[in-house]
Design goal:
4-stranded antiparallel beta sheet, disordered N terminus, alpha/beta, 11 helices, 7-stranded mixed beta sheet
């Protein structure tokens, strides 16, 4: 089944009215072009409007609408790319609720309509097949067979449903840059690692050590599991959970290590914030690879990188997304 033939999944995020705008903004940043705001007050105003065009409404509908919760609805495709996009939304919402205490986000409970989330966690797997990324890597789902002819490096992965599969354009652009700019023996830092796909790819391509961090605690076990499937041990790979932008102790843990390559596949606003911190983590002449940038925000990211001492080496774009490779000039 091709991507165009895939079904769509409807997702509802419960939030307080104060959260309508920031939640919608996060969804847009993840490349989703349309949302529906569901405000319970709108129906009440409709019922009380003397100018409405009809007099009778089913009692059942009235009761249903009165019980409806405030929130934001959006859609993703029922495939691996949709799963990765949903994972991006989840991670950003979690970070926003943690960092922006002044905003009442409400519960941010997420509901998938007409299908149980546990079922969807497996349904999308039928669309996720081995595929090549860049010139050197083949990504192979852990549940799929692959005839390895030895011409490419095979990266085995089980994304754990809400983390990166490699199918998303942002991940592919990052891996292409890793192939181009990372050298054998480099030390790598992967910020927002998710499934660990970027740092594991780096190690398979010759990095001597990789540190990885993600705000979601679930990422630690998933990244280590994926590393193990690729015969990568904890002697060369360290994964922790935390918010590198808000946790001073975590920030200190990476400051001064001076990595050769720093990787971040997140979103524009986080990359802009990171551009001030990454100089503490990277060598003079080191390469910062960042992606997850919708093209409309590319200029903002480029301005932040330039402001904090980075020189752009290359920009790649694919289907409305952009990735940037830049060198830190110290």
């Amino acid at each position: 089944m091709s991507e165009n033939e895939c079904n769509w999944i409807e997702i509802f995020i419960e939030t307080d009215k104060e959260g309508f705008e920031p939640v919608s903004g996060i969804i847009y940043q993840c490349g989703i072009t349309g949302v529906m705001i569901e405000d319970s007050d709108d129906f009440t105003e409709f019922l009380e409007d003397p100018a409405r065009d009809w007099d009778y409404i089913e009692d059942e509908l009235v009761e249903q609408k009165k019980k409806a919760k405030n929130g934001v609805t959006f859609f993703v495709r029922d495939n691996a790319n949709g799963a990765e996009t949903l994972g991006m939304v989840k991670e950003m919402l979690k970070a926003a609720k943690e960092n922006e205490k002044e905003i009442n986000f409400g519960s941010l409970e997420m509901k998938i309509k007409n299908i149980k989330e546990d079922d969807w966690a497996n349904n999308w797997k039928k669309y996720f097949k081995p595929f090549a990324v860049g010139d050197k890597i083949v990504i192979r789902p852990s549940w799929e067979e692959y005839d390895d002819d030895g011409t490419k490096t095979v990266l085995k992965i089980d994304p754990g449903h809400v983390f990166g599969t490699g199918t998303h354009e942002t991940t592919q652009l990052c891996i292409e840059f890793i192939e181009e700019y990372m050298k054998k023996g480099d030390n790598v830092l992967d910020i927002g690692c998710g499934s660990g796909i970027l740092s594991i790819a780096s190690l398979l391509l010759g990095a001597c050590h990789a540190d990885a961090v993600d705000i979601d605690p679930n990422a630690v076990d998933i990244a280590y599991t994926n590393a193990g499937m690729n015969d990568i041990g904890k002697d060369v790979y360290t994964v922790v959970s935390g918010n590198i932008l808000a946790d001073d102790e975590l920030d200190k843990a990476y400051s001064g290590k001076k990595y050769d390559v720093v990787e971040a596949n997140i979103v524009a606003d986080v990359i802009i914030a990171l551009s001030e911190k990454v100089p503490n983590y990277i060598k003079d002449g080191g390469v910062f690879i960042c992606s997850g940038i919708i093209v409309e925000r590319l200029d903002d990211v480029l301005a932040a990188l330039e402001e904090h001492g980075f020189k752009v080496l290359d920009i790649k774009k694919k289907k409305g997304w952009a990735a940037v490779a830049s060198k830190y000039n110290g």
